[in-house]
Amino acid sequence: QFLVMVALVAILATPTFADHPGENLDTRMIEMESDFHVIDTLAPAFNLQDAEGKLVRLSDFIDKIVLLNFTYSNCTDMCQLHSKKISEIQASINDGHMKDLVQFISVTTVPMSDIPPTITNYEKIYGLDPVNSVYLTHTADQPVSAIHQLARDYG
């Protein structure tokens, strides 16, 4: 019994178990970004597309913690600060063992100018890791207003 107890203590003391991926994430995020808001309700669904034209749904990330923001690539004020902060948060998360558990989603609010090359360049400028980050826009069959309605739905 003593050996089992020692083994259990050793296992629980390792970083993987001591810092559970979802534990205290809200607190950590609020410490890193004062504008971070916890939403404990069901998020509005969406069907959008990435820079390559691939359809992306919120439900694609059902098993992930999703950090979603609305922005546009030509923004010259707060968007740049938020994008830089999101990049820092992603780097912090990706340096640990949560990389596979967290998905970063940016949705453009100006889809007419955020075309695929612009989106790709935006991701590179801010150093966003495409492994768990995606920048989305409306699909060809959606009106531009669909993005604005989605932003309103998210509050």
Brief summary of the model shown:
It contains six helices and five strands; from the N terminus they run αααβββαβαβα.
Description:
The chain contains six helices and five strands, in the order H-H-H-E-E-E-H-E-H-E-H. The strands form two sheets. Strands 3-4-5 form a three-stranded parallel sheet. Strands 1-2 form a two-stranded antiparallel sheet. It has 155 residues and is of the alpha/beta class.
Attribute tags:
155 residues; alpha/beta; three-stranded parallel β-sheet; two-stranded antiparallel ribbon; 5 strands; disordered N terminus
| Backbone structural class | alpha/beta
Distance between the termini: 54 Å
How would you sum up the global shape?
globular
Mean pLDDT, all residues: 80
Q: Numbering strands along the chain, what is their spatial order in the largest sheet? A: 3-4-5
Q: Topology as H/E string?
A: HHHEEEHEHEH
Q: What is the alpha-carbon Rg in Å?
A: 18 Å
Number of helical regions: 6
Q: Beta-sheet strand percentage?
A: 15-25%
The stretches of 5 or more residues where confidence is low (pLDDT under 50) are 1-20
| Main beta-sheet annotation | 3 strands, parallel
What's the layout of helices and strands?
Elements: H1 2-13, H2 15-18, H3 25-32, E1 47-49, E2 55-57, E3 65-71, H4 78-95, E4 102-108, H5 116-125, E5 133-136, H6 145-154
